[in-house]
Amino acid sequence: MVADVLNSRGAIGTLQDANVHAPFYRDGETTRMSWLHTVPQHAPLRGISHRICWMLIAFVIARSGTACTGVSPMSTTVASRDTSTGSFRPTPSATSVPHSLTSLIDATVVRVVDGDTIIVDIDGSQERLRLIGMNTPELNKPDGPAECYATEATKRTQELVDAANGRVQLERDVSESDQYGRMLRYVWLVNPDGMQMLNEALVEGGFARAVTYRPDVKYQSILNREQNDAKNHNLGLWNVCH
Questions:
Q1: Considering the entire predicted model, what is its pTM?
Q2: Which residues are known catalytic residues?
Q3: Of 109, 173, 200, 225, which sits most exposed with the smallest number of CB within 10 A?
Q4: Is the dihedral of CA 106, 186, 208, 206 positive or negative?
């Protein structure tokens, strides 16, 4: 078919001695085994004609391959609101994937302290970890009551951790720890249906505010975008806390 198109444009010349309906044809004592060589040797397919021929073939192949684009090699999930029940559920997302899989460290969540602080076990050593790029309302304030939506944020973090059976992978940005000695990390939940960034899920659901803590800004544009969406839809603390 491609040969017929090219011939109609004058790139190949005559095919009168070729059998274009069969995968082979005989030219003297030489058998050609490719449909791309259905032109007999005496056809005027030389010089510039060769280049035009292959340029047109490359164009056809490139056009035929465009339908296969847009497929993501990695799938992740984030939490979004189910409008029928008002609850949150995992849904596919193409926004957050780890920047480098080789930089992730396996860990297990031992305890949820509050919405943005957890205790993790790394190879038998327990570390207090602060999620970065966001901030949840304070649950354990030493000088007063819990802040608005702190209980809900803590509960949501616990739900997300439980859904992953406590399995997480930790990703460092620039800083190792904060002034309180807490490890600073992005926390990736290892769910049965894919990886999910805990930091992002809390912001997306309206349980946390996106906050820039320089120099740790690797995913800040994503977190800021999720916050804008949560605010626009009056989710979580954006609907309750004033």
A1: 0.62
A2: 130, 138, 182
A3: 225
A4: negative
